[in-house]
Specification:
Layout (H helix, E strand, L loop, with lengths): L1 H18 L3 E5 L10 H17 L6 E9 L2 E8 L33 H11 L3 E5 L7 E8 L28
Helix pairs in contact: 1-2, 2-3
Amino acid sequence: ELAVIVARALEATWPLLEERHHSVTTDVSGDLVVFGDPERLVQVATNLISNAAKYTPPGGRIEISAAGAGDMVTLRVADNGVGLDPDILPRVFDLFVQGAQSLDRSRGGLGLGLAIVRSVVELHGGRVSAASEGPGRGSTFCVELPAARGEPAVHRPEPAAAPTKGEKVLVVDD
């Protein structure tokens, strides 16, 4: 359920939203269901909401909404923040791409977040888009995902693999 995904993302980002005194509105119906990995989809929503919080001046407005149309469900995160320069808009989901940063880089990360969003969404059979009327005019990010139809899929764990002969695997997850 997309409403649960958004609720979990808001829970994760709430300290930042509260610290910056943002006004947050949500309009996500409980009957919107998508087919996907809930943990990764929470990661997508958290990234979009935290970016909106970071790039919106204190006291700003963030609107989170969702709607279904045909076989797709669209999650929309819009803000009245710093906006995006038209030059960066076509590349905003590319690795290491960032807008202009101040010297202290207080808001900026490494330029990985939106690339991860795109990758996760595309692996779920969806697509992402960004829109902005320019610097100082806010931004809107949309995530389109396939709607789940019928009964939810039942997850059946794979049988455990046979032990390996002294091989080790290191998993690093941020």
